Amino acid sequence: MSEVLSFSESEARFLETYLPIEKKDASKLPFVTLTFATSLDSSLALAPGVRTQLSGAQSKAMTHYLRSRHDAILIGVGTAIADDPGLNCRIDGVGGYGSDGLDGQPRPIIIDPSARWTFNEQSRIFTFAKEGRGRAPYIFTTNSSPPAESVELLQKYGGKYIPLKVDPTDVEHRRLDWKALLERLWQEGHHSVMVEGGASIINSLLEPQNQALIDSVIITIAPRWLGQGGVVVSPKRRTDQSGAVIPASLLQQVRWHQLGEDVVLCGTISP
Ligand SMILES: NC(=O)C1=CN([C@@H]2O[C@H](COP(=O)(O)OP(=O)(O)OC[C@H]3O[C@@H](n4cnc5c(N)ncnc54)[C@H](O)[C@@H]3O)[C@@H](O)[C@H]2O)C=CC1
Ligand SMILES: Nc1nc(O)c(N)c(N[C@@H]2O[C@H](COP(=O)(O)O)[C@@H](O)[C@H]2O)n1
């Protein structure tokens, strides 16, 4: 059996006000948590394509606890290719880890505009799906004819490709329309989603027109610099009406909590 993690309700108390709630507005959009682990120089990984462990044991368990509290977990294709991730929840007591069924297991969502991620039964997501310890992914793509064997494998385990709507003002770059994507997730029954990365996905979600879609931010900061050449979270600059540069984004309702050697920063995006 693969690793089993534990994170108790008492350890999780500091997270409570940042966790998904059923939204009372009529937006029909899921609760969105932006969450990732970063170095002191804002890097998620040592270099593009390099899987890099930043979280210590306790903050890793916290991430898995967060997975158990969300209906879906979203990454970009760059991360799928680099990490061959499991994207399941390996917390003791969650479906497949001490209880039957898939209760507590989030749906992996992968943004793959041109369907370039190649996968098979041995890919970690499918290994977990096969063992009843995770779900098969939904892959958002603009490619109208992804490989037949990929379609078949997804179908076999309950995953699928979903057409990705692009920003109508920027069709050339196939930039995703975040609101349309989130509306579709809601329609699929996913009322909360944690966006884990990578850097391009996070930088895109932090663009001024998208920030309002983020309900909560939970960032693990590891006490190390990764150095130049890393995969960096650094959203586009903003300017005010006079043209002066202002911060790209600000957090409010901020709370810091130490877990092992890491610190976890929670907040909400300031409007
Ligand atoms: N430390 C952490 O918590 C995490 C680290 N990572 C690391 O991040 C690295 C991957 O990051 P990236 O290279 O930035 O890849 P990524 O995972 O952000 O995927 C980038 C791809 O996603 C698609 N994409 C991104 N934004 C888009 C948009 N607005 N519209 C349409 N398509 C869009 C494009 O196809 C793009 O090539 C990996 O090395 C991985 O290990 C990933 C997740 C979490
Ligand atoms: N929270 C966190 N800390 C790190 O140090 C990480 N490298 C990541 N990466 C994210 O987790 C995914 C791997 O998940 P599995 O353990 O394979 O289920 C990886 O793809 C990133 O999204 N996260």
SSE order, as H and E? EEHEHEHEHEHEHEEEEEE
Which percent bin holds the helix content? 10-25%
How would you characterize the largest beta sheet? 9 strands, mixed
End-to-end Cα distance, whole Å, is: 45 Å
Kindly state the number of beta strands.
13
Low-confidence stretches: none
Instruction: Indicate the structural class.
Output: alpha/beta
- The largest beta-sheet arranges its strands as 6-5-4-3-7-1-8-13-12
The hetero molecules present are: 1,4-dihydronicotinamide adenine dinucleotide, the ligand Nc1nc(O)c(N)c(N[C@@H]2O[C@H](COP(=O)(O)O)[C@@H](O)[C@H]2O)n1
Summarize the structure.
The chain is an alpha/beta fold. It is 20% helix and 24% strand.
Topology:
Layout: E1 31-38, E2 43-45, H1 57-68, E3 72-76, H2 77-83, E4 107-111, H3 124-130, E5 138-141, H4 148-157, E6 160-163, H5 178-187, E7 192-197, H6 199-205, E8 216-221, E9 231-232, E10 238-239, E11 245-246, E12 251-259, E13 262-269
Parallel strand pairs: 1-7, 1-8, 3-4, 3-7, 4-5, 5-6
Antiparallel strand pairs: 2-9, 8-13, 10-11, 12-13
The ligand Nc1nc(O)c(N)c(N[C@@H]2O[C@H](COP(=O)(O)O)[C@@H](O)[C@H]2O)n1 binds at residues 37, 52-55, 63, 75, 79, 83, 85-87, 124, 196-197, 220.
Description:
The chain is an alpha/beta fold. Helices cover 20% and strands 24% of the residues. It has 6 helices and 13 strands. The chain has a 9-stranded mixed β-sheet with strand order 6-5-4-3-7-1-8-13-12. Strands 2-9 form a two-stranded antiparallel ribbon. The longest helix is centred in the N-terminal third of the chain and has 12 residues, at 57-68. 1,4-dihydronicotinamide adenine dinucleotide (NAI) binds at residues 36-37, 44-45, 48-52, 54, 75-79, 82-83, 111, 113, 174-176, 196-201, 204, 231.
